[in-house]
Amino acid sequence: MKKLTFLLGFIMFSFTACSDDGEMGPPGPQGPPGEPGVNILGQTFGDLTERDFTYDAEFNLYAHFLEIPGNVEVFESDAILAYRLEVISDVETWHLLPKTIFFDDGRMIQYSFNHTSEDVEVVITGNFDLDELEDVYTQGQYFKFVVVPSDFVEESSVDISNYQEVMDALNL
Question: Which residue, of 25, 31, 86, 133, is most buried by count of CB atoms within 10 Å of its CB?
Answer without folding.
Answer: 133
